[in-house]
Amino acid sequence: MKITIADVDHVAMLARLRFDEDEKAGMAEQLSRIVEYVEKLNELDTGDVSPMAHAVPLRNVLRDDEVRPSLDPEEALRNAPDREGDFFRVPRILESE
Amino acid sequence: MPERAKVSTAWAAEAAGRPGPAQDGGTGAVACASEFEPVIGLEVHVELSTKSKLFCGCQAAFNAPPNSHTCPVCLGLPGVLPVLNRKAVEFGIKTALALNCEVASFSKFDRKNYFYPDLPKNYQISQYDLPLGTSGYVDVSVDGGMRRVRIKRVHLEEDAGKSVHESGTITGSSFSLEDYNRTGVPLLEIVSEPDLRSPEEAYAYLSMLRSILRYLDVSDCKMEEGSLRCDANISVRPKGSSVLGTPIELKNLNSFRAVEKALAYEFRRQAEILARGERITRETRHWDESRQVTVPMRRKEEADDYRYFPEPDLVPLEIEEAWVNEVRSTLPELPGVRRERFMRDYGLPAYDAAILTESKDLADYFEAAVAAYGGDAKAVSNWVMGELARLMNATGTDIRDVRVAPTALAAMLKMIDDGTISGKIAKTVFEEMFATGKEPRQVVAEKGLVQIVDEGELARIVDEVIAENRDVADEVRAGKDRAITFLVGQVMKKTRGRANPRAVNRLLRERLSSG
Residue B171: its pLDDT value, please? Predict the structure, then answer.
């Protein structure tokens, strides 16, 4: 399967990444090769194999409903690029009309 | 499609013959709405009342100081691992069973990827293709019968944080403030099939769903605190058509009434558009509570693309039959079944049974009172739905905080039956019981409210009243029967309601006909 520049644009937009034209061409080429490599799996007949939900053969790892201490707000906010009081302050969410 | 096009053309022709159906202030809407029907489905989110969050040990608290209940897991810091809360899964299974769903024997979690400031990980852990429950139903009593509303799916996911916008609205703000206390609180998403056919049915479905969830004790379902949230999908089609129209998603529905009103508004709006032969554009609309209209929400240019994939940090769930049965054994009698039983066992009208069983606590109260009373259950129902409900509403008291014990209500009803107090006086007694929590006997003794059963004493008072109101007495003698009501009232006043009105009436008649 060929990954096009348009595919790269779409995925980059979803991931909020910006590339110049050279980088996009490079990405398209490299991603195409990766996908082609994985396509080898299509040669296998997986008709009788159910989709894998997890790579580790574990099930039902659960914890009891018990409250454990949380971080102090000061600690939680330590990496915040911006704050106001004990809130994380974030830039405008939607552009205005 | 051809069928739809034809109908639309017919409507366009008819609409053209009427002066502007969209501008005539609603009469046109009513006229055309009657030819259309709405098709409604609801998506409900409830916060589960676990002590801790879904994937970490932070307390799931409401109204705590901002960012006081967060940790590296719910803040999405690198290198942490979520661990699933067993109780949340049990609450999910319990709800799925109560909604008659098939509980998945194999279930897993998936990542839903998107960027939004209330989502610190940039993905939400949810369930995509293997939800906890599928293919259920709820029976809802609607105007003139029962409607079975199918449940498409029930799944677990984590809640997002809470945004406070600088200027109050999202578009008018140059920045927003984020509180991540709610991030990671367990949510159960309950999606109905588009089986609802009117805004009233949507309201009834929501009430039934909330009632069930409260019986299960899995959520407090407080819409005003956001522990129950509802989005609606509504499309409109010509009556009798089996083709679905273009669905509109409605958001910002902050109360059951808002759900009902927004759906009614949206039905009219869409019916008008269709009546003009135009098409509905698929979009998400926002209910504007102050203006009582729906408005289109600003759309991002791109279509949603969540790139769901299995959550690698959580291993799948295998839900064995034994676990399901264990949870099943904890299910209480549910409101629908209880309502039927109230009608059957207590001979209550459907209306009484529905109101009494809406809340488990109210139904428990009623049953305890009936058991203690041993008399007519309808009398208990009348008091619970009448005086008790009135006083609870007037004082904003929850049934759990009512000071009148069910046994005290029963004792008071027995006092009416044996003639100690009149039904009228009982209201005064009950008010005092409600206010003070005192036993009825004590209230009656303290306030001297025992009914006058001594015929001689009553007769003396009746004579006094006749003597004091000769004019009226003469009117009664002259055949003006209605005037007797006034005299009865005077006796009741003199006795401060302690007389039996029927006895007073009889005594008055004896005297005024022989006089």
Answer: 67
The nearest CA of chain B is from the CA of A10 a distance in Å of 9
- Beta-strand ranges (E) seen in B239-376 are 248-253, 284-288, 293-296, 309-310, 317-318
Q: Which helix (H) or strand (E) holds B135?
A: strand B133-142
CB contact under 8 A, A70 and B116: no
Are B383 and B506 part of one and the same domain? no
Length of chain B in residues, anyone?
515
* Helix (H), strand (E) at residue B133: strand B133-142
CA distance A26 to chain B (A): 23
Neighbours of B378 (CB within 10 A): 14
Q: What is the ipTM of this complex?
A: 0.90
CATH of the domain at B492: 1.10.10.410
Confidence class for position B10, pLDDT limits 50, 70, 90: very low
Nearest to B68 among A73, A79, A95 (CB): A73
Give the DSSP per-residue string, B73-120: TTTT-TT----EEHHHHHHHHHHHHHTTPEEPSEE--EEEE---TT-T
Q: In this predicted model, which residue has the larger pLDDT, B363 or B142?
A: B363
The number of distinct structural domains making up chain B is 3
The residue whose two tokens read 């949206």 is B266
B316 lies in the same domain as B440: no
Q: What is the pLDDT at residue A95?
A: 56
In a domain, B281, yes or no: no
Residues B474 and B364 grouped into a single domain: no
Alpha-carbon span A54 to A56, nearest angstrom: 6
Chain segment B307-346, per-residue pLDDT in tens: 999 999 999 999 999 999 999 999 999 999 999 999 999 9
In a domain, A15, yes or no: yes
Q: How far apart are CA B44 and CA B190, in angstroms?
A: 5
**CA-wise closest residue to B109 among B125, B122, B98, B123:** B125
Stretch among B114-128, B254-268, B293-307, B363-377 having the lowest mean pLDDT: B293-307
Q: From B135, B103, B96, select the one nearest B321 (Cα to Cα).
A: B103
